[in-house]
Amino acid sequence: MEIRTLRYDHPDAVKLNERVQLEYVERYGDGDLTPMEATQFDPPQGLYLVGYVDGEPVATGGWRAQDESPDGHADGDAELKRMYVVDEARGRGLARRILAELEVSAAAAGRSRMVLETGLKQPEAIALYESCGYTPVTKFGLYRHEELSVCLGKELNGPASPAEV
Fold this sequence. Notes:
Layout: E1 2-5, H1 11-28, E2 46-53, E3 56-66, E4 77-85, H2 94-108, E5 113-119, H3 123-131, E6 135-136, E7 149-155
């Protein structure tokens, strides 16, 4: 997989975002309504990645800087958003590679913790994050009061190579 840094509003990122939103609708009855803007993912306050196999965009993920807020973030947080791999490319470790790159870049940008919100109807996502060292954290964000919401986090230990993550 070739991983490219793109903007959140790049056509390939938009295409994958539309697909993940359809999956949210299938699983939860609605898309993710969390407000997001492309500029939130611009370095050094964020990063957005798209993974390509044979020239086709198949995987995506990004992080955006967050600091202490009334919706539950803490100073130094990097919030993981839009982790997704298309159905036909799942099971190849692509999400794990995107996640490792995002963790390295967030640590390099001075973020101390990667956090994410997912849901109980995404058990494969929860399994991935737990296998990568994520543990439950205080709920945050738009869905923090929802029963199906699951918030996980992982301390970032400073810059490392993706192979070490």
